[in-house]
Design a protein that fits this description.
Elements (H helix, E strand, L loop, with lengths): L1 H13 L19 H25 L11 E5 L2 E4 L2 E4 L3 E3 L3 E3 L15 H4 L8 E5 L3 H13 L2 E6 L10 H13 L3 E4 L2 E8 L2 E7 L14 E6 L1 E4 L3 E3 L32 E3 L10 H16 L13 E3 L4 E6 L2 H8 L3 E6 L4 H5 L6 E6 L6 E8 L2 H13 L4 H5 L10 H8 L14
Helix pairs in contact: 1-2, 1-4
Length: 431
Amino acid sequence: MPSKRLLTVGDNLYYPQHPKFAALKNGHKPRFNFAAAIREKNEMVAMARQANYVNVLEHLDGVSLVQARARFVGPNQVEAGGQVFEGDKIIIATGSSTKALPVPGMDQVRWLNNVAALELPELPGSMIVVGGGPLGLEFAQMFAHFGTKVTVLEAMDQILPRHEPEIADELQRCLEAEGITFRIGVTIERVEERDGKKVVTVRGGRGVQKRRSLATEVEELTSDELLLAAGIQANTAGLDLEKAGVKANKNGFIQVNQYYQTDNPNVFAAGDCVGRMALETVAAKEGALAAENALTVPTRTLNYDHIPNAVFTNPQVASVGLTEEEEMRRFNACACRTIRMDMVPKALTVNEDRGVFKMVIHPRSSKVLGVHIVSPEAADLIHAATIAVKYGLTVEDVVDTLFVFPTLSEGIKRVAQAFTRDVSQMSCCVE
């Protein structure tokens, strides 16, 4: 919630200055108070925390809250705040945090994680963001909209490495158009601090939209702040998991079966600390399933192919189900279509040229297996696709469904129609 609040503040600051319509070409530059934005964000978080957690706990019978560091002292015993608590069943839900990079000099430099970046007292003039995943890109655009000069470093071959290449390329194009600099496929050789500035030495990579190869070049990049967003680790250090017979991998993520049960059958784990999908909705669902499995017979599980996810940049990215690569891995065949935003009538109405829609279907049954979107409000659009994926609707089912005209959600229908016709040669609302 706090980052989404500040992303919205950034949108309301940036886009009035860069209107899409000639009738508004002079634009309007609102006054911006960074300290006020942080203060309002803190007030919103405090209110939500009180309403969603503190007040809820106070009204739950039989629940005691102990605010202290905890550790296992036995298979069914936890020590916290000097007291030992015993439970027939135990659930671990300790979340995750930013993973420090094993780069020379990193331990000598003050770097930011997502929490610290939201508490900065002053707006930095420049920022290097390490990591081109959802978190890194959201913070990159947020600060760029505020007026910070932002450079994003990504080690993989594209931003959003787990997303479709068409999705990643389109979002990078949109963010570059707003002044964010990208270095893709880059290696960080060392980090240091000089005269209060962060200096990052990088090798190789590619520049603007992958057009310029920098494979052998070494360069020093300098900024006021350095934000790490290149991975997470489970918050399990110090829990003494071995005393409970609970195993974790090298990054601290707890090993569980499909029912969120650890090697100790009476200890369950859920959320980011198990490392499956680091999403708030997933953590909540896993927690509910783990609790039910702990208190009954373990049978409840979750189909991760049906879980939507979103990146709250502008335009947004949203995805559900299989990618083309995953479909090839599972079926050794694929059936996919991609359309650009200019195939969607609503885009012409609102002068929107940012976005793509991609659909992945079963190569034999034509059931919708995945939908991937770059679009304004893609996080809202994806739920129609989620229903299609979860309940096994076919391309024909989607095409046969009436969508409101004109809306951006018609992009889902248009990309479905693209399996059987050239949608560039089609009138509006034609079946």
